[in-house]
Structures are given as C-alpha cells and as structure tokens.
Amino acid sequence: MLIEELSQEQLQAQFEARIKAGEKIEADDWMPEEYRNALIKLISMHGISEIMGALPEKEWVPKAPSLFRKLGIMAKVQDEMGHGQLLLRVVEDLLKPYGKGRDDLMQDLFEGRLKFHNVFHMETKTWGDAGLIGWLVDGAAIISQTNMLGASYGPYARALQRICAEEVFHAQHGEAIIMALAEGTDEQRAMVQDALKRWWEPLLFFFGPASSKTTGTSKQDITIKYKIRINTNEELRQSFFDKYVPRILSLGLELPDPTMYYDKDQKLWIYEQPNWENFKKVQRNEGPKSQERLALRRTSYENSAWVRDALSSKVV
Q1: Whole-angstrom distance, CA of residue 103 vs CA of residue 89
Q2: What angle do CA 288, 54, 304 make, to 5 degrees?
Q3: 49 neighbors 120 (Cβ within 8 angstroms)
Q4: The domain at 20-206+214-312 falls in which architecture?
Q5: Is the pLDDT of residue 199 over 90?
Q6: How much is the pLDDT for 312?
Q7: Of the N and C termini of the chain, which has fewer Cβ atoms inside 10 Å?
Q8: Cβ distance 70 to 61 under 8 Å?
C-alpha cells in the first residue's frame, strides 16, 4: 500500500513501530508533526547554543595567559562554531516542509522565539571562568549529548557522534586549565573557587527543571516518548553530580551548596534547589550578558549578509 493511501492513524502506528524497533528516521521519511516540531525545537536550540556558547570564551582569546593557552581556546571556539553550523544544517532539512530555512532561525533568535542555553548568558569575569566552562559546562554538555547518541532521528544521532568526540577534548582542555590554577598560588585557587561559586546555579539550571509527572502529552516527555533521548532532566543532573562532585572535592574546593550530600538509601544527591525564577529571566533574555551577546550575533549576521548573497547567486 502506498503511503498516500494510509490514514493518519496507520501512518502514526507504522512510525511508532519503527521507533520501537530501533530504526532510524531520516529527513525524507514521514513523521508526526509533534516529532518534527520537537526535533526542530531541540536541535535548533542546540545548534544556536553551540554558536552563542563560543562567545563567552572568545572574549578570553586575546587575554589568555600564554600563547599555548591562546591556541587551545581559539581551537575550541572554532570547534563550537563548526558544531553549530552542522546542527543548523540538520534543522534546515526539518524546516523544508514549512518553507523555512536558516534565515528564519536567525530571526527567531533575534526576536526572542529561539532560546540559547542559560549558561551562555553569563559573564566570564576571569580566566578561571574560561577553564570552568570547558571543565564543567562542557562536561554537563557531554552528559546531555551522549544521552542522545542513540536518537531515533538519524541525522541528529550521526552529528552527535562527531560533536561528542570533540567535546571530550574540550572538557580535557578546561580540566587542564582548572588543574593548573588549583595547583597554583593562593590567588589562583581563590579564582577557581570564586568561579565555581558564581557558576553553580547556572550549572544546576543546565539540565532544565525536573521532568513533569504527566506522561506522553507533556512537551518535555515527547523527546523520551519518541526515543530522541533516554533520561529525564533530573536523571541527567544526578549523573552530573555523580561524576563531578567527587572531582570538585578532590581539588580541595568547597561546594557552593553546603547542604549537599549523597543519600545512600535513595541513591541520589540531595541539594538545595536553585532559584528557578532566575532561570525564567534568562529564558526571557534578561541574563547578565543576554542582550550584549545577541547584539554581537546580530551585527555579525548583518555584516556577513553579502557573503550569503554571493554564495546563493548563480554564476553567469
């Protein structure tokens, strides 16, 4: 039977059967609108966050303490921009049925409809911040992204294979900076401790609010329903704690949350909830650096319009 002859119910049933069987969905395959829209929201946010995420570290390229460190952070910035371009290309295929493209995504960003990750709205006040982004922010990103390496949408899963491999190097880059500072002078150790204190709340925000108790119909659960990802927000946050709290303590650093402890009976970390109102402010682009970074991205996009025009013009 041709796909045109199937009812929506039959198409949905076939699609869900493919997902359950572990098949990969490709860009030209039939897919439910809720699946397509969930992918567009997730991957466009991921792609834009890779691009916007390069900006906080870009500020430290001219201020890096040595040529070695300068080369390292420049390479990292270049990688992040490449990740963003790769992911936006994946989104473009999903947008084609709606007659939309890359320019629509950028306009959504500038007009506040497309969000970028909360951590990239923050200030990078010291070299300790630059190291901590690589160590803990990229560490959190690895936990989040490896959770989707088996994503049911094939183009995203394949893109993540490359991205996650490179993010491992980024985390090692950040860890090397933090280790050098933690083993340095009292002033350098204090720099790391101060950075950790300021970035703790954004790191808790990184994985988003705890998952809804509802099933199947909530926006947050659609990604799990269709096997785009495996674990919930809180499960990912707990994995982050499992990996990084012992490492933080091993460096002689203090956790910014003195109430935090591991409950052996529940097998989870008990921690003080961050102020989720601050998270909502950042989502509204009211973070410390939100407008400045959006303005920089907007100016860059406008200034490079001639390149896009030249590339899209037909050669006579």
Answers
A1: 12
A2: 100
A3: yes
A4: Up-down Bundle (1.20)
A5: yes
A6: 78
A7: C
A8: yes
pLDDT at 173 over 50: yes
What confidence score (pLDDT) does residue 268 get?
95
- Position 99 confidence tier, pLDDT thresholds 50, 70, 90: very high
Q: Share the mean pLDDT of the chain.
A: 93
Calpha distance 30→245 (Å, rounded): 43
Is the pLDDT score of 169 beyond 70?
A: yes
Where do the domains of the chain lie? 20-206+214-312
Distance between CA atoms of residues 232 and 245, nearest Å? 20
What separation in angstroms does the CA of 289 have from each of 12, 119, 142, 310?
43, 10, 24, 32
Within the chain, strands assigned E span 261-263, 268-270
* Whole-number Å distance between alpha carbons of 268 and 210: 14
Give the pLDDT mean for 83-109: 96
Cβ atoms within 10 A of the Cβ of 295, count?
11
